[in-house]
Write a structure and sequence with these properties.
Blueprint: H1 4-26, H2 34-40, H3 45-60, H4 69-97, H5 102-114, H6 123-137, H7 141-157, H8 163-183, H9 185-188, H10 194-211, H11 224-244, H12 250-260, H13 262-284, H14 295-318
């Protein structure tokens, strides 16, 4: 049976990835740096790959992997509809304060909820669809591989379509990464020498800079083959870092804590970004953008600090909105030991 310590590296890897996602969203709209190009090349694929890896680990232990509709609705669709609706209302209010007609702001932003878009929370319905397709076909390896291959080609190469169709096309790309994580679980869950990680990191950087900025959300892949390769390489690198990082130190516990709460950070970081930008505009005359390429690091540090401080309260009051029912009597913290109830 898998032990908690065996899975610690997965939470740490997710913690790295969610931090990089926040980093990518922390720049001003015009910001695009080499660091962002590399981060965007794999930070969202990592979450899909991780899902496949977890399915693979369960399969190795001869555990049943099946699509639990009720659980997936509670953990993916509930937080999407609740928190994305609240987020779209929040940015609508900010737009109205800024002079946008109320009707225009509300219609435009709330329309994004229906279209499964408009914020980082697009990931949740995409994960729902890709998990559904993968798990419903997983019992037959040949059928599963055929469907994954066929839908991957559609997701990568079909031109941009109707916004509702785009929801499924994004999910098809995510499905490819879930399948890769599942079938390559041994590769991703094995600790290798640091030398190999350094070499692959250099290759990953080269490929990312050659391919340019990419995104599953907008289905911008540049070269789709390079995109798929780099999504896998970047994930492997983060997993190796997670395995090699010294256990017990505060930094590893912090990333593990962020990984455990990654869905909550995904749903809530947009609120914090908007509040910080509003305060920066009102009281500091847009100081953050003046830092240039350093802006993302400063902004990310502020966001993650605020969310880390708030997380015990969020876990206590809003766990239900993320499909979490078994709440520990004591709020988890970065320095606490983790139990299975936190996963």
């Amino acid at each position: 049976m898998q032990t908690n310590s065996r899975l610690d590296y997965i939470d740490i890897a997710k913690g790295f990835a969610i931090t990089l996602m926040v980093f990518g969203h922390s720049y001003s709209p015009s910001g695009e740096t080499p660091v962002m190009v590399w981060v965007y090349s794999f930070h969202m694929p990592l979450f899909f790959l991780t899902t496949g890896i977890l399915y693979g680990l369960k399969s190795q232990e001869h555990k049943t992997i099946s699509f639990d509709l009720k659980k997936k609705c509670e953990t993916l669709l509930l937080p999407y509809f609740l928190w994305n609706t609240l987020y779209q209302l929040f940015i609508s209010i900010l737009a109205i304060i800024g002079g946008t007609p109320a009707k225009d702001a509300l219609i435009h932003n709330l329309r994004m909820v229906i279209l499964f878009n408009g914020s980082a929370m697009w990931f949740l319905p995409a994960m729902f669809i890709s998990s559904l397709v993968f798990l419903k076909t997983a019992n037959s390896k040949s059928i599963n591989i055929f469907i994954v291959f066929f839908t991957t080609l559609i997701g990568l190469f079909v031109p941009k379509c109707n916004e509702i169709v785009e929801v499924f096309l994004r999910s098809f790309v995510g499905l490819a990464y879930i399948a890769i994580g599942f079938y390559a679980v041994k590769f991703y869950s094995t600790k290798y020498k640091k030398f190999y990680t350094v070499i692959l990191f250099a290759i990953s950087l080269l490929l990312a800079f050659s391919n340019g900025i990419v995104s599953i959300a907008s289905r911008t892949f540049q070269n789709p083959v390079l995109y798929m390769i780099n999504g896998c390489l970047g994930t492997f690198i983060i997993y190796q870092v997670a395995m090699h990082i010294k256990r017990g130190i505060n930094l590893s516990r912090l990333f593990e804590y962020w990984g455990v709460n990654s869905i909550k950070i995904l749903c809530l970081h947009g609120f914090v970004i908007q509040i910080i930008r509003l305060l920066d505009y009102k009281f500091f005359n847009n100081l953050l953008p003046s830092f240039g390429s350093v802006e993302g690091f400063i902004h990310t540090a502020l966001i993650m600090t605020i969310l880390t401080i708030m997380m015990p309260l969020i876990n206590k009051i809003f766990n239900w909105s993320f499909g979490v029912k078994n709440v520990s009597k004591t709020n988890p913290s970065p320095m606490a030991n983790y139990s299975n109830n936190h996963r």
